[in-house]
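Re: the 297-residue chain
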Amino acid sequence: MATDFKRWAKDRQARIETFLESRLPAVDHVPERLHNAMRYSVLGGGKRVRPLLAFAAGELAKADTKRVIVTAASVELIHAYSLVHDDMPCMDDDVLRRGKSTCHIEFDEATALLTGDSLQTLAFELLAEKCLADSPETQLIMIAQLARASGSRGMAGGQAFDLASVGKTLSLPELEFMHIHKTGALIRAAVMLGARCSNHLDEAQLERLDHFAKCVGLAFQVVDDLLDAEATTETLGKTAGKDADNNKPTYVSILGIGQARELAERLQHDADQVLDSFGDSAIRLRQVTDFIVKRKF
């Protein structure tokens, strides 16, 4: 089963890479420097966890893969834009991402800012230009969901909370609130957009999927905090120990490594329980969740 998942994941990762490569502007199109920076920031790196979740949810919902890959790419473009902006000096001020120089180091700060802006707008261009759902109303819901997950009530709002929390001691509920927005909102969007590419699921089932995705989003962040504390820069592909150096509140700083690991396992258990009602159709979602919680880099 593990081998089967690795083959499935590798296939989907290759598909999303090919799709993104085809939809990102070519480097010889004006403005060349900006387009080069966009491709530099998106292609050839990352585990593509959010696209994998979109593909897995799409399979559960019996959705057309040609629709799902567009939503998967849209979410990945939003994620890539957020990394470009997060790494800038005005945010986390980092120099390494996915094993190579961050965008503002490789190019310059102004280009990095415009790269993030351009990746964000390309995400919504993709979501709007093709028929991705069985009704226009559903597709509008999908566009609105990604916008909400990306903005002040989602990822950007979570990042603002994160910046305001540096040097402070947060309670566990406060930390959870921050990461439901900063990390979890986009993961939830990936699952829900993949599922909404068909009308196979009713609203109650979609609500259960959203709860599953909420658990997975929190588990993802707990594991990220553990890796930041335990892994090396070489294995992470980004600067290790950055959270502790910047005095940021994390699951590790609040709970310690042992309890943080137990929390990740508990969240995975809760996510798996939500999927019980979907039977065998949820196998890929279970496998992606397992990959998220047990990943080493």
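The chain has one domain: 2-294.
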